[in-house]
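Progress report, Aim 2. The chain analyzed during this reporting quarter is listed below.
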Amino acid sequence: MTITQEVENSGNGQRESITEPLIRQRKVSIHEESPQLEGNGNGNGGSMFMVFLSTFVAVCGSFEFGSCVGFSAPAQFGITSDLGLSLSEYSVFGSIGNIGAMVGAITSGKVSDYIGRKGAMRMSSIFCVVGWLAVYFAKGSVSLDIGRLCTGYGMGVLSYVVPILIAEIAPKHLRGGLATLNQLMIVTGVSFTFIIGTLVSWRTLALIGVLPCCVLLVGLLVIPESPRWLAKVGQQKEFELSLRKLRGKDADISQETADIQDYLQTLEHLPKAQILDLFQRRYLVSLIVGVGLMVFQQFGGINGICFYVSHIFEAAGFPSALGTVIYASIQVPITGLGALLMDKAGRRPLLFVSASGLLAGCLLLATSFYMQAHEIFLEAVPTLALTGILTYVGSFSMGMGAVPWVIMSEVFPLNIKGTAGSLVTLVNWFGSWVVSFTFNFLMSWSSYGTFLLYAAVNLLAILFIAKMVPETKGRTLEEIQASMNRS
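Predicted structure tokens for the chain:
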């Protein structure tokens, strides 16, 4: 990571082990820790107003992400009619956003480490604005594809930096719930774009996509930078001012400041993180957890079902328009419920419930298509397919949609967070592309076999969660990383 005043000082040639506890001076156990440690406003003069405002500004990027994802579906008929695009040309337009997102994922960690979390969000917003304007003024496929590539790049960066910023500014007792707002606003952006897209032209819809970027750019002028990033790059005065602004002018931030600085002192002895460094033993558990959750999130079939839900309903004999409306209607409230439960139930319970529901949903879908293929109780097939899809999307919205991003933002130490985050985000976008690209081929091979395959992946996800994923609820980022790197 090429950061000015970078704290990962490799000049000393030392590679001290990070297996020892990173918070050296803590006398209080996790369970005995006072809630005042992070200035949460419980009697120590703290205020959460700036944390909530900063989170609101950050998740405008998530809403923009959802708007970009949701644009291609309602715009398809208008764009192909107005510009005379063939199906293959429109397919390129729809899929090239994933290519841009993969490029954004590769560069997101380095960018956010070099220019800061706010700087990365500002840059991605500018890319999205340029992309939307290119789409709005498009006269042919070239301008459309360039615009989609730009918005895709912005999505790739935002998908990494939004949960990272929220995790780094939030007190531990609110971090999970606030980070889950990332996924809530993504699905809200998708649903909003689906609905508005039925009422306005595709060019107007492209202009509407600019609005979240404008709110984000203005909001970034008001909120503070991540205090952990400021401390990491050696801006001590700005670090303390940012933390004070986030916790309230009368909050006691001395313990939190000391914890962050103690942690960074340990990181100072570590060399600059390169991609191969992620596979060192000291980081291996964090890497397996972060990458593994993204693999199971995507290869469990979400984007195949999401992108082609109308086709699934049609194939099962259920009215596609009605099914799609029902599908869209349950995403937002269930994701909101997951956000409320994140810091109450914990990460692992939500993941267990979610993965189990995904398994059940896939089995219901497989059963419905098996019955259709073998002409067994055909009148029950549409209802069974609807039940399977709703079980699937509800379960995904409850946990597997949001929790992997929350945990990704928590488990990596600061010295590798940029490189590791880029890799994890790249894996996510690559999985998204693979599943969405192969879904129709799999359905042609075997409709019920497709969902049995996804069911097997979700069964493996349950085993992976049980064996590898730690509970991070109620712990500071420094405590999480210290415990994971003791092995």
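The chain is about 75% helix and 0% strand. The radius of gyration is 23 Å. These observations will guide the mutagenesis work planned for the next reporting period.
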